[in-house]
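The step that takes the researchers longest sounds almost clerical: writing a folded protein down as plain text. The outcome of that step, for a single protein, is printed below.
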Amino acid sequence: MDEDAPKLQVRLVGRDGRRRYDPASRDQLVAACLEPGVSVSRLALEHGVNANLVRKWVKRAREKRALTSVSAFVPVQIASDICSSSASDRLMEAEPLGKRSHASKVSALLPNGVNLTVECSDVDGLAAIIGALGHVQTGR
């Protein structure tokens, strides 16, 4: 943090000596701690707060940010090369699932950042892959 930045504000001191800090100034301190190359211990010392307490605040902020940024759903894009024809015409011309021979493509961006693309002509295999992707646990 800057030298002219305000110090951490104590909102209340209880009978037991436990301090309650102003949420806005606490959030500023946590944001400063999240900057690359910053020493959490040094900032805690400058603000007169226990370094372990500041580390706990930083950990909670990171967990909160991780929970809000991870989606439970995997976005799916379906590309079709069929021109404009009515849905009933396409249903009438469609082959049974087991007899399809053209390759299908599935692309998924997993919660851990991995981009998975699978292209094959085995519909049952693709169905198994999609089923497995539906059970991917997030937050790990």
Q: What stands out?
A: Residues 10-69 form one domain. Residues 86 and 92 are 10 Å apart (CA to CA).
